[in-house]
Design a protein that fits this description.
It contains 15 helices and 15 strands. It is an alpha/beta fold.
Protein backbone atom coordinates (compact mmCIF):
# COMPACT_ATOMS: atom_id res chain seq x y z
CA UNK A 1 0.00 0.00 0.00
CA UNK A 2 1.55 3.30 -1.07
CA UNK A 3 -1.49 5.49 -0.29
CA UNK A 4 -4.10 5.70 2.46
CA UNK A 5 -7.20 7.87 2.12
CA UNK A 6 -8.21 9.95 5.13
CA UNK A 7 -11.68 11.12 6.11
CA UNK A 8 -10.41 14.72 6.16
CA UNK A 9 -7.33 16.77 7.01
CA UNK A 10 -6.74 18.80 10.19
CA UNK A 11 -10.38 19.93 10.08
CA UNK A 12 -13.56 18.45 8.54
CA UNK A 13 -13.65 21.11 5.82
CA UNK A 14 -10.18 20.13 4.56
CA UNK A 15 -10.84 17.50 1.91
CA UNK A 16 -9.60 15.51 0.12
CA UNK A 17 -6.92 14.14 2.42
CA UNK A 18 -4.46 11.24 2.21
CA UNK A 19 -1.01 10.03 3.17
CA UNK A 20 1.15 8.58 0.40
CA UNK A 21 4.71 7.88 -0.70
CA UNK A 22 5.69 10.39 -3.35
CA UNK A 23 8.17 7.97 -4.92
CA UNK A 24 5.53 5.27 -5.31
CA UNK A 25 7.06 2.95 -2.70
CA UNK A 26 5.13 1.15 0.01
CA UNK A 27 4.02 3.01 3.12
CA UNK A 28 6.09 1.91 6.16
CA UNK A 29 2.92 1.29 8.19
CA UNK A 30 0.09 -1.21 8.32
CA UNK A 31 -3.28 -0.20 9.76
CA UNK A 32 -4.34 -3.17 11.87
CA UNK A 33 -7.55 -1.62 13.17
CA UNK A 34 -9.57 1.57 12.94
CA UNK A 35 -9.16 4.44 10.52
CA UNK A 36 -6.51 6.90 11.72
CA UNK A 37 -6.89 10.53 10.70
CA UNK A 38 -4.55 13.27 9.56
CA UNK A 39 -3.57 14.44 13.06
CA UNK A 40 -3.37 10.82 14.25
CA UNK A 41 -0.68 10.14 11.66
CA UNK A 42 1.20 13.34 12.52
CA UNK A 43 1.25 12.20 16.15
CA UNK A 44 2.10 8.62 15.17
CA UNK A 45 5.12 9.43 13.01
CA UNK A 46 6.56 12.02 15.41
CA UNK A 47 5.99 9.87 18.48
CA UNK A 48 7.50 6.77 16.88
CA UNK A 49 10.71 8.65 16.09
CA UNK A 50 10.90 9.83 19.70
CA UNK A 51 10.63 6.39 21.33
CA UNK A 52 12.88 4.81 18.73
CA UNK A 53 15.62 7.37 19.48
CA UNK A 54 15.26 7.08 23.25
CA UNK A 55 15.61 3.29 22.97
CA UNK A 56 18.68 3.63 20.74
CA UNK A 57 20.33 6.22 22.99
CA UNK A 58 19.59 4.76 26.43
CA UNK A 59 19.13 1.05 25.76
CA UNK A 60 15.79 1.08 27.64
CA UNK A 61 12.36 0.40 26.18
CA UNK A 62 10.43 3.63 25.84
CA UNK A 63 6.91 4.97 25.53
CA UNK A 64 5.36 8.35 24.90
CA UNK A 65 1.95 9.98 25.10
CA UNK A 66 1.27 12.54 22.33
CA UNK A 67 -1.38 15.22 21.91
CA UNK A 68 -1.57 17.66 19.00
CA UNK A 69 1.90 16.84 17.69
CA UNK A 70 3.75 17.31 20.98
CA UNK A 71 4.57 14.81 23.73
CA UNK A 72 2.87 15.21 27.08
CA UNK A 73 5.66 12.99 28.39
CA UNK A 74 8.09 10.26 27.45
CA UNK A 75 9.57 7.59 29.69
CA UNK A 76 11.79 4.55 29.85
CA UNK A 77 10.83 1.23 31.40
CA UNK A 78 11.85 1.72 35.02
CA UNK A 79 9.75 0.25 37.82
CA UNK A 80 7.45 2.63 39.65
CA UNK A 81 7.41 3.32 43.38
CA UNK A 82 4.17 2.46 45.22
CA UNK A 83 3.34 6.18 45.46
CA UNK A 84 3.89 6.72 41.73
CA UNK A 85 1.80 3.66 40.86
CA UNK A 86 -1.08 5.09 42.86
CA UNK A 87 -0.62 8.59 41.44
CA UNK A 88 -0.75 7.08 37.93
CA UNK A 89 -3.89 5.01 38.74
CA UNK A 90 -1.92 1.83 38.11
CA UNK A 91 -1.51 0.36 41.60
CA UNK A 92 -4.07 -2.32 40.70
CA UNK A 93 -2.48 -3.28 37.36
CA UNK A 94 -1.50 -6.93 37.66
CA UNK A 95 1.93 -7.75 36.23
CA UNK A 96 3.11 -4.15 36.00
CA UNK A 97 6.51 -4.80 37.60
CA UNK A 98 7.16 -7.60 35.10
CA UNK A 99 6.60 -5.43 32.02
CA UNK A 100 9.17 -2.67 31.43
CA UNK A 101 7.09 -1.45 28.48
CA UNK A 102 3.97 -1.11 30.65
CA UNK A 103 6.07 0.75 33.25
CA UNK A 104 7.23 3.15 30.53
CA UNK A 105 3.70 3.90 29.30
CA UNK A 106 2.19 4.14 32.79
CA UNK A 107 4.86 6.75 33.57
CA UNK A 108 4.27 8.63 30.31
CA UNK A 109 0.50 8.60 30.66
CA UNK A 110 0.61 9.48 34.35
CA UNK A 111 2.89 12.50 34.07
CA UNK A 112 0.30 14.97 32.79
CA UNK A 113 -2.97 13.08 32.77
CA UNK A 114 -5.00 16.17 31.92
CA UNK A 115 -3.06 16.65 28.68
CA UNK A 116 -2.85 12.91 27.94
CA UNK A 117 -6.63 12.51 27.79
CA UNK A 118 -7.34 11.19 24.28
CA UNK A 119 -3.66 10.70 23.47
CA UNK A 120 -1.82 8.89 20.71
CA UNK A 121 0.62 6.31 22.06
CA UNK A 122 3.99 5.17 20.72
CA UNK A 123 5.91 2.16 22.02
CA UNK A 124 9.50 1.30 21.14
CA UNK A 125 8.91 -2.46 21.34
CA UNK A 126 6.20 -5.05 20.85
CA UNK A 127 3.06 -4.18 22.79
CA UNK A 128 2.50 -6.85 25.43
CA UNK A 129 -0.67 -7.87 27.24
CA UNK A 130 0.03 -5.89 30.43
CA UNK A 131 0.55 -2.67 28.48
CA UNK A 132 -2.58 -3.34 26.42
CA UNK A 133 -4.66 -3.93 29.56
CA UNK A 134 -3.62 -0.54 30.93
CA UNK A 135 -4.28 1.20 27.61
CA UNK A 136 -7.68 -0.50 27.36
CA UNK A 137 -9.02 1.41 30.35
CA UNK A 138 -7.68 4.84 29.33
CA UNK A 139 -9.23 7.34 26.91
CA UNK A 140 -6.91 7.21 23.90
CA UNK A 141 -7.15 7.77 20.14
CA UNK A 142 -4.62 5.22 18.94
CA UNK A 143 -1.25 3.54 19.12
CA UNK A 144 1.81 2.90 16.96
CA UNK A 145 4.31 0.12 17.69
CA UNK A 146 6.57 -2.23 15.75
CA UNK A 147 4.53 -5.29 16.78
CA UNK A 148 1.72 -6.54 19.00
CA UNK A 149 1.38 -9.82 20.83
CA UNK A 150 -1.79 -11.72 19.84
CA UNK A 151 -3.31 -11.12 23.29
CA UNK A 152 -2.45 -7.40 23.23
CA UNK A 153 -3.90 -6.95 19.74
CA UNK A 154 -7.14 -8.67 20.74
CA UNK A 155 -7.48 -6.40 23.80
CA UNK A 156 -6.79 -3.21 21.85
CA UNK A 157 -9.19 -4.11 19.06
CA UNK A 158 -11.95 -4.04 21.66
CA UNK A 159 -11.44 -0.36 22.48
CA UNK A 160 -13.82 2.34 21.23
CA UNK A 161 -16.43 -0.22 20.21
CA UNK A 162 -13.92 -1.87 17.90
CA UNK A 163 -12.74 1.34 16.24
CA UNK A 164 -9.49 1.95 18.10
CA UNK A 165 -6.65 3.02 15.78
CA UNK A 166 -3.82 0.48 15.77
CA UNK A 167 -0.79 1.04 13.54
CA UNK A 168 2.15 -1.27 13.01
CA UNK A 169 5.34 0.53 11.93
CA UNK A 170 8.16 -1.15 10.05
CA UNK A 171 11.06 -0.65 12.52
CA UNK A 172 13.60 -0.95 9.72
CA UNK A 173 12.13 1.95 7.73
CA UNK A 174 14.57 4.80 7.08
CA UNK A 175 13.13 7.95 5.47
CA UNK A 176 14.82 9.98 2.75
CA UNK A 177 17.50 12.45 3.80
CA UNK A 178 15.55 15.37 2.32
CA UNK A 179 12.08 16.23 3.61
CA UNK A 180 9.50 18.58 2.11
CA UNK A 181 6.22 20.19 3.08
CA UNK A 182 3.97 22.82 1.60
CA UNK A 183 2.67 25.98 3.24
CA UNK A 184 0.40 28.35 1.31
CA UNK A 185 1.26 26.58 -1.90
CA UNK A 186 4.99 27.06 -1.37
CA UNK A 187 7.22 24.00 -0.98
CA UNK A 188 9.75 23.95 1.83
CA UNK A 189 12.73 21.62 1.67
CA UNK A 190 15.35 20.75 4.27
CA UNK A 191 17.60 17.96 5.39
CA UNK A 192 16.07 15.71 8.05
CA UNK A 193 17.18 16.35 11.60
CA UNK A 194 19.28 13.22 11.96
CA UNK A 195 21.32 14.63 14.83
CA UNK A 196 22.03 11.91 17.39
CA UNK A 197 21.52 12.80 21.03
CA UNK A 198 23.64 10.78 23.44
CA UNK A 199 26.01 10.93 26.41
CA UNK A 200 28.74 12.57 24.33
CA UNK A 201 26.52 15.64 23.90
CA UNK A 202 26.88 16.38 27.62
CA UNK A 203 30.67 16.68 27.73
CA UNK A 204 30.89 20.49 27.73
CA UNK A 205 30.08 21.27 31.35
CA UNK A 206 30.37 25.03 31.91
CA UNK A 207 29.58 25.25 35.64
CA UNK A 208 31.81 24.85 38.67
CA UNK A 209 29.89 21.73 39.67
CA UNK A 210 30.86 19.06 37.15
CA UNK A 211 29.40 15.99 38.87
CA UNK A 212 26.93 14.47 36.41
CA UNK A 213 25.85 10.96 37.52
CA UNK A 214 24.89 8.49 34.80
CA UNK A 215 21.21 8.34 35.79
CA UNK A 216 20.99 12.14 35.58
CA UNK A 217 22.68 12.08 32.18
CA UNK A 218 19.96 9.66 31.03
CA UNK A 219 17.31 12.08 32.31
CA UNK A 220 18.93 14.90 30.33
CA UNK A 221 19.05 12.71 27.21
CA UNK A 222 15.35 11.85 27.61
CA UNK A 223 14.61 15.55 28.02
CA UNK A 224 16.55 16.54 24.89
CA UNK A 225 15.11 13.79 22.68
CA UNK A 226 11.63 14.73 23.90
CA UNK A 227 12.34 18.34 22.88
CA UNK A 228 13.49 17.22 19.44
CA UNK A 229 9.87 16.22 18.73
CA UNK A 230 8.10 19.00 20.68
CA UNK A 231 6.65 22.11 19.04
CA UNK A 232 9.07 24.97 19.73
CA UNK A 233 9.85 26.98 21.76
CA UNK A 234 10.06 24.21 24.33
CA UNK A 235 11.54 23.23 27.67
CA UNK A 236 11.37 19.81 29.33
CA UNK A 237 11.85 18.77 32.97
CA UNK A 238 12.85 15.14 33.59
CA UNK A 239 13.37 12.89 36.61
CA UNK A 240 13.72 9.19 37.34
CA UNK A 241 13.72 8.18 33.67
CA UNK A 242 10.79 10.24 32.43
CA UNK A 243 9.78 13.68 31.27
CA UNK A 244 7.78 15.20 34.13
CA UNK A 245 6.88 18.56 32.61
CA UNK A 246 6.83 19.75 29.00
CA UNK A 247 6.39 23.41 28.12
CA UNK A 248 5.64 23.45 24.39
CA UNK A 249 4.94 26.02 21.71
CA UNK A 250 5.49 29.18 23.74
CA UNK A 251 6.85 32.33 22.11
CA UNK A 252 8.86 33.25 25.21
CA UNK A 253 11.47 30.96 26.75
CA UNK A 254 10.54 31.95 30.31
CA UNK A 255 6.92 31.01 29.60
CA UNK A 256 8.17 27.60 28.40
CA UNK A 257 10.06 27.19 31.65
CA UNK A 258 7.17 28.33 33.82
CA UNK A 259 4.72 26.01 32.09
CA UNK A 260 7.04 23.00 32.29
CA UNK A 261 7.88 23.78 35.91
CA UNK A 262 4.21 24.05 36.83
CA UNK A 263 3.55 20.62 35.32
CA UNK A 264 6.60 19.16 37.07
CA UNK A 265 5.41 20.60 40.38
CA UNK A 266 1.99 18.99 39.88
CA UNK A 267 3.68 15.65 39.13
CA UNK A 268 5.44 15.86 42.49
CA UNK A 269 2.34 17.04 44.35
CA UNK A 270 0.26 14.18 42.94
CA UNK A 271 2.56 11.87 44.90
CA UNK A 272 2.11 13.75 48.18
CA UNK A 273 0.37 11.75 50.90
CA UNK A 274 -2.54 14.20 51.01
CA UNK A 275 -3.25 13.68 47.32
CA UNK A 276 -2.78 9.93 47.49
CA UNK A 277 -5.16 9.68 50.45
CA UNK A 278 -8.08 11.41 48.70
CA UNK A 279 -11.23 9.29 49.03
CA UNK A 280 -13.43 9.85 46.00
CA UNK A 281 -17.19 9.54 45.91
CA UNK A 282 -18.64 6.35 44.49
CA UNK A 283 -19.04 6.45 40.73
CA UNK A 284 -16.34 9.07 40.05
CA UNK A 285 -14.36 7.86 37.04
CA UNK A 286 -10.65 8.25 36.28
CA UNK A 287 -11.04 11.25 33.94
CA UNK A 288 -13.14 13.02 36.56
CA UNK A 289 -10.61 12.16 39.25
CA UNK A 290 -7.91 13.82 37.16
CA UNK A 291 -9.92 17.03 36.98
CA UNK A 292 -10.71 16.91 40.70
CA UNK A 293 -7.06 16.34 41.66
CA UNK A 294 -5.98 19.17 39.38
CA UNK A 295 -8.42 21.56 41.08
CA UNK A 296 -7.54 20.27 44.56
CA UNK A 297 -3.89 21.14 43.88
CA UNK A 298 -4.74 24.48 42.25
CA UNK A 299 -5.03 27.94 43.79
CA UNK A 300 -8.80 27.45 44.07
CA UNK A 301 -9.39 24.07 45.75
CA UNK A 302 -12.76 25.28 47.04
CA UNK A 303 -14.15 24.50 43.59
CA UNK A 304 -14.07 20.81 44.56
CA UNK A 305 -13.73 20.93 48.36
CA UNK A 306 -16.20 23.69 49.22
CA UNK A 307 -19.06 23.04 51.61
CA UNK A 308 -21.61 23.02 48.78
CA UNK A 309 -19.74 20.69 46.40
CA UNK A 310 -17.36 18.34 48.20
CA UNK A 311 -19.90 15.51 48.55
CA UNK A 312 -20.20 15.36 44.75
CA UNK A 313 -16.50 14.56 44.53
CA UNK A 314 -15.42 12.87 47.75
CA UNK A 315 -16.64 10.25 50.20
CA UNK A 316 -14.68 12.07 52.91
CA UNK A 317 -13.99 15.80 52.79
CA UNK A 318 -10.26 16.27 52.06
CA UNK A 319 -7.89 17.93 54.46
CA UNK A 320 -6.86 21.41 53.30
CA UNK A 321 -3.55 21.60 51.44
CA UNK A 322 -2.39 25.17 52.08
CA UNK A 323 -0.09 26.89 49.61
CA UNK A 324 2.68 27.24 52.17
CA UNK A 325 2.56 23.49 52.81
CA UNK A 326 2.79 22.75 49.08
CA UNK A 327 5.71 25.14 48.74
CA UNK A 328 7.51 23.53 51.67
CA UNK A 329 7.07 20.10 50.10
CA UNK A 330 8.31 21.27 46.71
CA UNK A 331 11.31 22.99 48.31
CA UNK A 332 12.57 19.54 49.33
CA UNK A 333 12.64 18.33 45.70
CA UNK A 334 16.16 18.06 44.28
CA UNK A 335 17.93 16.35 41.41
CA UNK A 336 15.53 17.27 38.60
CA UNK A 337 16.97 17.63 35.09
CA UNK A 338 16.07 20.32 32.58
CA UNK A 339 16.58 20.52 28.83
CA UNK A 340 15.94 23.47 26.54
CA UNK A 341 15.64 23.37 22.75
CA UNK A 342 17.47 26.73 22.43
CA UNK A 343 19.67 28.87 24.63
CA UNK A 344 18.40 30.65 27.73
CA UNK A 345 18.54 34.37 26.94
CA UNK A 346 18.17 35.42 30.58
CA UNK A 347 18.97 33.93 33.96
CA UNK A 348 15.30 34.12 35.03
CA UNK A 349 14.82 30.66 33.52
CA UNK A 350 17.45 29.23 35.88
CA UNK A 351 15.93 30.99 38.87
CA UNK A 352 12.48 29.56 38.08
CA UNK A 353 13.91 26.10 37.43
CA UNK A 354 15.69 26.13 40.79
CA UNK A 355 12.34 26.58 42.55
CA UNK A 356 11.22 23.25 41.05
CA UNK A 357 14.26 21.29 42.19
CA UNK A 358 16.37 21.47 39.02
CA UNK A 359 19.98 20.44 39.63
CA UNK A 360 21.05 19.51 36.07
CA UNK A 361 20.64 21.55 32.88
CA UNK A 362 21.37 20.95 29.20
CA UNK A 363 20.97 23.80 26.72
CA UNK A 364 22.74 24.84 23.51
CA UNK A 365 24.48 27.94 24.86
CA UNK A 366 25.34 30.84 22.60
CA UNK A 367 23.45 33.69 24.25
CA UNK A 368 25.17 37.06 24.74
CA UNK A 369 24.22 36.61 28.40
CA UNK A 370 25.66 33.10 28.80
CA UNK A 371 27.89 34.39 31.59
CA UNK A 372 24.88 35.53 33.62
CA UNK A 373 23.09 32.24 33.04
CA UNK A 374 26.18 30.30 34.16
CA UNK A 375 26.52 32.52 37.24
CA UNK A 376 22.91 31.79 38.18
CA UNK A 377 23.48 28.06 37.74
CA UNK A 378 26.61 28.26 39.89
CA UNK A 379 24.68 30.13 42.58
CA UNK A 380 22.33 27.15 42.80
CA UNK A 381 25.18 24.60 42.52
CA UNK A 382 23.70 23.22 39.32
CA UNK A 383 25.53 21.17 36.70
CA UNK A 384 24.98 22.80 33.32
CA UNK A 385 26.06 21.44 29.93
CA UNK A 386 26.24 23.46 26.73
CA UNK A 387 25.29 21.10 23.92
CA UNK A 388 25.96 23.49 21.04
CA UNK A 389 22.90 22.08 19.25
CA UNK A 390 19.53 23.78 18.78
CA UNK A 391 16.51 21.48 18.59
CA UNK A 392 13.70 23.53 17.04
CA UNK A 393 10.76 21.55 15.70
CA UNK A 394 7.87 22.96 13.66
Amino acid sequence: MNEFSLKYGCNPNQTPARIFMADGSELPVEILNGRPGYINFLDAFNSWQLVKEIKESTGFVAATSFKHVSPTSAAIGKKLSPALKKACFADDLEGLDDSPLACAYVRARGTDRMSSFGDFIALSDECDEVTARFIAREVSDGIIAPAYSPAALEILKGKRKGGYNIIRIDPSYVPAEIERKQVFGVTFEQGRNNFKIGRELLQNIVTKNRDLPEEKAIDLIISLITLKYTQSNSVCFAADGQAIGVGAGQQSRIHCTRLAAQKADLWHLRQHEKTLSLQFAEGVGRPEKNNIIDLYLSDHPEEVTGEDVWRQNFAVRPAPFPQEEKEAYLSSVKGVSLGSDAFFPFSDNIERAAKSGVSYVAEPGGSVRDDLVIDAADAHRMVMCFTGMRLFHH
